[in-house]
Amino acid sequence: MRRPAARAVALAVVALVVALGVGGYAVSAWRTRAAAVAAAPSVPATALGDVLDAPHLVFRSTLPGSTYGLVAAVPLDAPDGPRAFTDVVCDRVDVAAGTASCLRTVRGVVTSFETLLLDARTWEVARTWPLPGIPSRTRLSDDGRLVATTAFVTGHSYTAVGFSTQTDVHHVDGTAVGNIEGFALEVDGQPFTAVDRNLWGVTFVDDDVFYATAASQSAGRTWLVRGSLAARAMESVQEDAECPSLSPDGSRLAYKKVVGTAQGQSVWALAVHDLATGTETLLPATRGVDDQAEWLDDDTLLYGLARADEAGVTDVWATGTTADAVPRLLVPGAWSPSVVR
User: Fold this and answer.
1) Cα–Cα distance, 57 to 34 (Å, whole number)
2) At CA 245, angle to CA 243 and CA 248, rounded to 5?
3) Cα separation, 93 vs 272, whole angstroms
4) How many CA atoms lie within 13 A of 335 on its CB side?
5) How many CA atoms lie within 13 A of 210 on its CB side?
6) Relative to the CA of 50, which of 4, 140, 195, 266 has its CA 20 to 30 Å away?
7) pLDDT, position 282
8) Could you give the angle at the alpha carbon of 256 between the alpha carbons of 238 and 221, nearest 5°?
9) What is the DSSP string of 141-199?
10) Distance CA 317, CA 43 (A)
11) First and final CA of the chain: distance in angstroms?
12) Could you tell me the mean pLDDT of each successive run of 10 residues in the chain, 341 residues long?
């Protein structure tokens, strides 16, 4: 008769030991993180208002320490100098016409994801809505009226192998234009209706026309597509192009394209497509990039690269748009650059 009670006591003891172990691990992890933050060198900082008064670059700071993950800004004429920090944490950020789009992970008992739209001067939140998965890409239209967001999502029946994305377009008042995966798509002039198609990496031409990436796992192909929000339709422009970005003068698109594989994974480099002539220029010195490029000006691209020897640390690089261009480090410890003039 005493055996069940003894078993219950034993189980309670085991549960207590496990709880203490988990709690001890959490405390240990917190102490390790706190020690790493304390040991990190301080990041030179300056006043935010002073930087925002002149042309500047906004980005996610990835230098180790207490400011890791915060949105920061540097003057365009001193990109490697002291940075001005906001109090906003973002995984991806973009700024246009006084509005900032921020995609971020909210960690807690249950991790969630969200889109924030903020005043790019005060960095106060104007509105927010849930993001359906892990933050991937965001872009605002030049006039700041539209915002595109891409997230990695789960739950699609075709994602046992590979990945799935969801790309939504909203007006900045929060009203939805829609998920562009639901738009009609033509590839090489023919309707393309594969259920495993994915769309991501929007760049706006205006408040109707956009470019993006379309892909199909079953077809094993990716395409640069041109779309219309009003017509809710897209058509392929060329194959093998991902994460397009329109130049300031609207004449060229930068994108990444596969140039090889390493350990079974795709390796990309940036390329530039002249919309008038159709000429493509590959930038081989950018090999290893996995980012949606940003245009610093009509002849210079910015992109992020992870440091091979420091987990979690990335740098923003700049390169010209000729085949022989040599990239240069622009902002150390940075990610997701956005140019504000």
Assistant:
1) 29
2) 175
3) 23
4) 25
5) 31
6) 140
7) 98
8) 45
9) -TTSSEEEEEEEE---TT-SSS-EEEEEEEETTS-EEEEGGGSEEEETTEE---TTEEE
10) 19
11) 80
12) 42 37 37 47 87 97 97 97 97 98 96 98 97 97 98 61 84 96 97 95 98 94 97 97 98 98 95 97 97 98 96 97 98 98 92
Q: Which position has the token pair 């509105």?
A: 127
Helices (H), ranges, the chain: 3-39, 48-52
Distances in whole angstroms, Cα of residue 57 to Cα of each of 71, 79, 84, 125, 336: 10, 7, 10, 20, 10
Task: Give all strands of the β-sheet with 314-320 in edge-to-edge order.
Answer: 294-297, 300-306, 314-320, 328-331
Alpha-carbon 266 to chain mean position? 18
- At residue 242, the 3 state secondary structure works out as strand
The per-residue pLDDT for 155 is 53
Q: Dihedral, CA atoms, 116, 102, 183, 230, nearest 10 degrees?
A: 70
In the chain, the largest separation of any two C-alpha atoms, in whole Å, equals 88
Q: In b/e form, how buried is each residue of 9-26, taking b as 16+ CB within 10 angstroms?
A: eeeeeeeeeeeeeeeeee
CA-to-CA distance for 71 and 124, rounded, in angstroms?
A: 12
The residue with tokens 């006039």 is 143
- In angstroms, the CA 127 to CA 115 distance is 8
